[in-house]
Amino acid sequence: MRAILTYHSIDPSGSPVSIDEGTLRRHIAFLRSGKVAVVRLEEILAVPEHRDAVALTFDDGFTNFESVAWPLLRYQDFPVTLFVATQRVGRDNAWGGESARGIPTLPLLGWDSLRRMQKQGLTLGSHSRTHPRLTQLDDDALEDELDGSLSDLERELGTRPSSFCYPYGDVNERVAAAVRSRFARACTTELATLPASPDAQRLPRLDAFYYRAAGRLESFGSRAFRAHLWLRATARRLRGH
Predict the structure, then answer these.
(1) Which of 129, 147, 194, 219 is within CB 3.0–4.6 Å of 225 for a Cys-Cys bond?
(2) pLDDT score, position 117
(3) Which of 193, 159, 177 is nearest to 45 (CA)?
(4) Straight-line distance from the first to the last Cα atom of the chain, in angstroms, rounded to the nearest whole number
(5) Contact (Cβ atoms closer than 8 angstroms) between residue 71 and residue 10
(6) What 3 state SS string does the chain have?
(7) Could you give the dihedral angle defined by the CA atoms of residues 15, 16, 21 and 27, in that order, rounded to the nearest 10 degrees?
(8) Beta bridge partners of 57
(9) Domain boundaries, the chain
(10) CB 116 within 8 A of CB 153
């Protein structure tokens, strides 16, 4: 089984974008056991289907990534991709100037922190410029969100990322085509493991929020793991998320 595991914020709020530090530490303990290979996002599609492997991603770039998650992950030498919305760097996650119900408004990393962690081995990816719903943008605005984020990252960090993450998982054929012309791969919020022949521009991920319970992630690849994933994914589809 191959999968992309994604996190957002490491905080104790219990919000849908949060897990606490203890849960992260438990996940890391499982991953370092060697039962599942931890590979770079750029490598996950090349892993044979029969091998258990995960790639680790974090969305948004909260400051608690640097203070809590990154030291733990770096100590284990785990490869990580962090997706940032480039015009929100150093600000907060009140996307569009509005806080989301049930989601804590938290500070986002600044460029100095991103530079420092990049030098330490962190891979940066684009999460657009301002974290909008891309399907609601006209072509000019979509181009600005994509090309602008690339320009921002290249100017500030000297890197041109090959990976993209759709804000809110919001994607259609037009948006996917625009992303395909600029990035080698893109991540969605679809809750699933990687299929046999995945579309590199619509890669599903497993949200760590659904693996907070003790033993849940640790059952990776088992029949129980697959059943839990099916139930969660079905519930999300029924809710329209």
Answers:
(1) 219
(2) 98
(3) 193
(4) 24
(5) no
(6) CEEEEEECEECCCCCCCEECHHHHHHHHHHHCCCCCEEECHHHHHHCCCCCCEEEEEEECCEHHHHHHHHHHHHHCCCCEEEEECHHHCCCECCHHHCCCCCCCCCEECCHHHHHHHHHCCCEEEECCCCCCCHHHCCHHHHHHHHHHHHHHHHHHHCCCCCEEECHHHCCCHHHHHHHHCCCCEEEEEEECCCCCCCCCCCEEEEEHHHHCCCCCHHHCCCHHHHHHHHHHHHHHHHHCC
(7) 160
(8) 6, 81
(9) 2-239
(10) no
Return all residues near 150 (Cβ < 8 A) that are at least 6 apart: 126, 160, 161, 182
CA 188 to chain centre: 8
Q: Are 154 and 118 in contact (CB under 8 A)?
A: no
What's the whole-model pTM score?
A: 0.96
Q: Which of 184, 189, 194 is nearest to 51 (CA)?
A: 194
pLDDT in tens, 227-237: 999 999 998 88
Distance in angstroms (rounded) separating the CA atoms of residues 68 and 87: 23
For the segment 136-172, what is each residue's pLDDT rounded down to a tens digit?
999 999 999 999 999 999 999 999 999 999 999 999 9
Instruction: Report the residue count for the chain.
Output: 241
CATH number for the domain running over 2-239: 3.20.20.370
Q: Render pLDDT for 166-191 as a digit per residue (tens, 0 to 9).
A: 999 999 999 999 999 999 999 999 99
What are the backbone dihedrals phi and psi of residue 42, each rounded to the nearest 5 degrees, phi first?
A: -65, -15
